[in-house]
Amino acid sequence: MHGVPRRRRCRLGFQFVTAPTRAKLADGRELLFFSLPGHTPSPVADRRPLPPRQPCQSQLRFDRTTGQWVIIAALRQDRTYKPPPDQCPLCPGPTGMTSEVPAPDYDVVVFENRFPSLSGEGESALRVSEGFASAPGHGRCEVICFSSNHTGSFADLEPAHARLVVDAWRQRTADLMARPGIEQVFCFENRGEEIGVTLSHPHGQIYGYPYLTPRTSAMLGQADEHRKLNGSNLFADLLAWELADGSRVIARTDLFTAFVPFAARWPVEVHIYPNRFVHNVVELEPGELDDFAQVYLDVLRRFDRMYSAPLPYMSALHQFADTDAQREGYFHVELMSIRRSAVALKYLAASESAMDAFISDVTPEDVAQRLRELA
After folding, report:
1. CA atoms lying within 13 Å on the CB side of residue 30
2. 260 close to 250: Cβ distance less than 8 angstroms
3. Which of 135, 142, 201, 305 could make a disulfide contact with 90, Cβ separation 3.0–4.6 Å?
4. Would you give the end-to-end CA distance of the chain in angstroms?
5. What separation in angstroms does the CA of 335 have from each of 83, 284, 311, 350?
6. What is the DSSP string of 46-100?
7. How far is the CA of 97 from the CAs of 18, 40, 80, 82, 85, in angstroms?
């Protein structure tokens, strides 16, 4: 299979207690510490003079031309923008006066975003009537800091620490999926100024949407059609086809496979699939969680070996609820970069942004070969 042997990975046996240590920020937002074995978080009181938090700070508006909801969140104009390293709000703040994480240190921490796109509890009445249709922007937006190390990255984490991040994703996914009004949970990371990142500290975000996002709805529609025509799951068949072809597979274990997709839209794009059908990260078993963390690290480290500087990327965890409407959804990760060479970026200009018609400047097979060589 194009030089990619199927390897057995030793079971790391990480068994973390995923119940986090909880604290509150000065404006009442929730703060959760996830810790490695033997580490005990020591949060201090958040003493910043923060303004009172509004229960719902955004609005959903329906675009009749596309049939899609648009989030209007004007408060995000005031969010922190490229602060100097000594004023980073994601670094530990032992005095309780300087940081979103009032503590002398931490392993992984999650907190409610101070400038959320979605906020507020309860069901949103997403009904489309005549004329302009809108609804409160109910939902939840969280920030997840992968490490207290300001200059690090996810790829720098030790396997046990990466597995702790996966455990945090898992705990937050289970929590948010159980909340009323949350239809989809999306864990993601944007890395690099080229992507638009305004805080360089290694972190990601977790969104709880009150509706299914357009991409998810489109994928589920395709999967439903595939089931009707073929009697099988679309994503499982795609994985089988990629394995049978082999030219785009870059890493494979007994439990997970990473490959460049046949119709890749981005200059660098890798998908990571569990070899067993599950809807979301909550349904993964302990050994699968170990493998997921290892394969995820493997791919990110290959990314950073592609060029002389770290690769800017976006990471998207596609998760689905175990419901009739989402029953065909197969958990997987999509990793994407806009860098198409050592000196050039892929800009989403008119064809991509206005028409959603992607044009790729490189072949997926060439990208896969390059990534295989970077093992």
Report:
1. 12
2. yes
3. 201
4. 15
5. 27, 20, 11, 23
6. ----PPPPPS---EEEEETTTTEEEEE-GGGGGS--S--GGG-TTSB-TTSSS-S
7. 28, 21, 16, 19, 16
Cα separation, 273 vs 290, whole angstroms: 14
Consecutive 10-residue averages of pLDDT for the chain (375 residues): 52 58 97 96 97 87 94 91 94 97 98 95 75 91 98 97 98 96 97 95 97 97 98 98 98 97 98 98 98 98 96 98 97 98 95 96 97 95
> Strand, coil or helix: what is 325?
coil
Residue-wise pLDDT for 165-215, tens only, equals: 999 999 999 999 999 999 999 999 999 999 999 999 999 999 999 999 999
Q: Which two tokens stand for residue 108?
A: 């992984």
- 10 Å CB burial of residue 87 (0-12, 13-18, 19+) is exposed
CA distance 116 to 165: 21
Decide: pTM greater than 0.85.
yes
Q: Is residue 90 within 8 Å of 203, Cβ to Cβ?
A: yes
Instruction: Report the catalytic residues.
Output: 203
Tokens 């009739």 sit at which residue?
Answer: 324
* Model confidence pLDDT, tens digit, residues 278-306: 999 999 999 999 999 999 999 999 999 99
Q: Which two tokens stand for residue 149?
A: 């190390």
